[in-house]
Write a structure and sequence with these properties.
The chain is an all-alpha fold. It has helices at 17-27, 32-37, 41-57, 62-75, 81-91, 96-104, 111-125, 132-140, 145-168. It is globular, with a radius of gyration of 16 Å.
Length: 187
Amino acid sequence: MTAFAKLDETTAPAAAVPLIQKSQAAFGRLPGLHAVMARAPALLEGYQVLHRLFAENTSFDADEKTVVWQAINVYHECHYCVPAHTGIAKAMKVDDAISDALRDETPLPTPKLEALRTFTLAMAESRGNPTEAELEAFYAAGYGEEQVLEVVLGLAQKLMSNYTNHLADTPVDAPMQKFAWTPKSKR
């Protein structure tokens, strides 16, 4: 793919400038993904809103949020989001064993987290049409309808970022390059 332009406050459409400023305030820098999304201010705003809602308003704890985000990132083989969410997981004090298992596609440390990954992947693979058995296994692990719908929210957020990064071939931000990742299919 041809790399899309990364915009900033001086080159972005006027509607994106406050969104860029919001990203800079939140991250102390402008993430490359946000600089690409700025070309379409509605996309950047939608992504920011979904990120905030998933990060701050779901019932998932930090480990569970990481499982949902990274299961989707790994499934979509997002070269940008896997390293970014590895760094985010570290900042959220998620155990490296969880991040490593997600990145390496190996079993997670607890059956409940594994059930969350399995269900998240079932939702992605089936395009939102899990089997009754997949739903029942998710419920048996201790989750309910609220969490089913919160997985939908996480999928929506990650679809926006993963697809944008595939199209734009967004370079991994310097602070996250130490978490570079290669998909299992390409190792």
